[in-house]
Write a structure and sequence with these properties.
It is built from eleven helices and 23 strands. The protein is an alpha+beta fold.
Length: 457
């Protein structure tokens, strides 16, 4: 299975996969070899927020995701609810200023249809055929973007139904023996200029076969008004892989076997674009920067979080969801990788598992430490009295410039105001293992951490 890789994890993943194609010039130079310029069966791309990668392809990509899942215990793999290229009979459920929310399948699978991608203004209750154009990972706060134009994607070209063939494509495209099916047009990618005749021909043959299959499937399909919400076409394999701190360390080791790699390379690059550029500069100027330890103090001093700044808690769930807790103000930061966050609480209700009532003036004091598998939150009243302590067991904490990030592992430890220590939510962890959201090795780690925290409290 051929794989095309792009983004900040490219060097490490190129060393991980066996059949990489369409490698960029820097990658070819780094590996001192020439990679074939063939169509890719699977495309691996860094996600928009650099927390992981998306895996896309017309066929089964399980071998790729299985390989990625071996990087570390805190690697998570999720299948997209709305895969790229999938086509639905969908119903408009809400109209917004710039587009509409559209229900594609029962169970709340909703996408966003910009008005710019429709031939007419749509209204609530309208039923129409849409395709998933831009999927987003479950930890993102963005909904998948839909389009009413139908496309079949390839790594070197895309077929557009009802479109016009790109006249600015590669020169060799003019002599290809294969044409797109009637009613379809070819839109060549920029990378197609580097491909030879065989690669271009193979790409068009593959796309043509899928377009013919599409036309046959839609020959007698029911109208959207009759069947919405309904899936007409399953689209591409679309999976999301989230890397935790342990996994990013394994990626560093992979990259270091190929080229100069500073400690925390991928951890720093995942934080922000400016931090990513700084890593490239350091490794160019100081190729021997590796071999020490993650420079937490230098990284946070330059990029944050800093004392007085706002930090959000990105509370990830094993099923892929991200819940935003906070924000709070950074009260203290140490060179050893610890950050203290203070959050004002809204009165009403009770603290989870503790049972104490949340009162006016209550605050939550949370102490994060980079790389630790747990973090404590102490709840205090306006008078300073401790209302309870909640210790969250999670994947190793990463303190990015604007967000503390981890995946919650369900089991937690609480200390009540009277000093009683209680371990909670083991049943939720067991259910997550049974559902396939948490691996057994990761669950065992969570249980052992919970035991240690319980004994320490």
């Amino acid at each position: 299975m051929t794989v095309r890789v792009r983004g900040i994890y490219t060097t490490a993943l190129t060393s991980l996969f066996e059949s990489v194609v369409q490698a960029s010039p820097p990658i070819q130079e780094r590996f001192e070899e020439s990679f074939p310029f063939e169509p890719a069966d699977v495309v691996v791309e860094t996600t928009e927020n650099r927390q992981g990668v998306g895996v896309f392809g017309p066929g089964d990509a399980s071998t790729v995701t299985e390989t990625l899942s071996t990087l570390g215990r805190d690697t998570f793999v999720w299948e997209a609810d709305l895969p790229r290229g999938a086509i639905y009979a969908a119903e408009v459920t809400e109209t917004l200023d710039s587009g509409a929310l559209v229900t594609c399948q029962s169970g709340g699978r909703v996408g966003f249809l910009p008005y710019s991608k429709t031939a007419r203004r749509v209204e609530t209750g309208d039923r129409l055929r849409v395709q998933v154009d831009e999927p987003y990972p479950p930890w993102s706060d963005r909904r998948p973007v839909l389009d009413t134009t139908i496309r079949i994607r390839g790594s070197l070209a895309t077929l557009v139904r009802g479109g016009t063939t790109d006249t600015g494509g590669p020169e060799l495209a003019d002599v290809l023996p294969t044409d797109p099916p009637e009613g379809w047009a070819v839109d060549w990618t920029r990378d197609a200029d580097e491909a030879d005749l065989d690669a271009l021909g193979d790409t068009l043959d593959r796309l043509r076969a899928r377009a013919i299959e599409f036309d046959e499937a839609f020959g007698d399909a029911d109208a959207p008004t009759d069947v919405a919400p309904h899936c007409y076409w399953p689209g591409e394999t679309t999976k999301w892989v989230w890397f935790g701190r342990e996994s990013r360390g394994a990626l560093d080791d992979r990259r270091r076997s190929v080229t100069a790699t500073m400690d925390g390379h991928h951890r720093i690059k995942a934080g922000s674009e400016s931090a990513s550029a700084a890593v490239d500069f350091v490794e160019d100027v100081c190729p021997d920067a590796g071999g020490g330890s993650f420079p937490f103090e230098a990284v946070t001093r330059q990029f944050g979080p800093r004392v007085g700044e706002t930090l959000t808690i990105g509370h990830g769930k094993p099923d892929g969801r991200r819940i935003e807790l906070g924000p709070g103000e950074v009260e203290n930061r140490t060179a050893e990788g610890e950050v203290t966050l203070c959050r004002d609480l809204t009165p009403g209700g009770t603290y989870d598992a503790i049972g104490t009532e949340i009162q006016e003036g209550d605050v939550a004091i949370t102490k994060f430490k980079e790389g630790r598998w747990w973090y404590p939150t102490v709840y205090r009243g306006a008078d300073g009295d401790r209302r309870g302590t909640y210790v969250n067991i999670c994947t190793p904490v990463e303190l990015f410039p604007r967000e503390a990030r981890y995946v919650d592992l369900h089991v937690d430890v609480v200390k009540h105001p009277d000093g009683t220590v209680e371990r909670v939510d083991d049943d939720e962890l067991n259910a997550a293992v049974e559902a396939g959201h948490v691996s057994e090795p990761l669950a065992e780690k969570a249980r052992s951490v919970a035991d240690a925290v319980s004994n320490a409290l």
